[in-house]
Description:
This protein has helices at about 5, 10-30, 35-40, 50-65, 80-85, 105-130, 140-150, 165-170; strands at about 45-50, 70-75, 90-95, 135-140, 155-160. By secondary structure, the protein is of the alpha/beta class. Helix 4 runs parallel beside helix 5 (about 80-85) and helix 6 (about 105-130) packs across helix 7. It starts with a helix and ends with a helix. The model is unreliable at about 1-10 and about 25-30 (pLDDT under 50).
Amino acid sequence: MAALDGYLPHYVLDSLMQLTEQTSQLNQCKNIDIPQQQLLMPNVLIAGGGSGGHVAPAIAAAEELKSRGCKVLIAHSTRTIDRVMLEQSAFEGFQVPAAPASMHPTGIIKFCLGFLQTTKVIRRVIQSKQIQCVLSTGGFVAAPALKAASSVGCPTILLNIDDPPGKANRL
């Protein structure tokens, strides 16, 4: 994708590839017998959503990562724009119950419950799909995904394309 350079700086991809090499070396040190093909194709979870502005970069990143041999899964919000954009892409994705932050009492409850539920869902996905890295593109889906990754020791990369950074990226 020619316009990808604006969405996904090369250092993010280089970081992911370095992470893959480190994982490969670590597994070799532990004498873990993993097929070479699996070592070259890390499983990456891209988490972002709440608006199309977070899903479009997720799809762009997924396209580039796939072209480099990665397996990609995208986590997004339940909003229609996120679902429609992902359905029009070639990538597998799933919705999470995250909710945007709000100062309204019911909004606070929805945010907290959504955060906890999304963290639990993402944690299960990381473990069951053997995700090796979580790439966050922002939005209210990002913070619980990064929390889940951190809780299971999965490396994370934050791709911030907003200036100034949004609430989830600042968290």
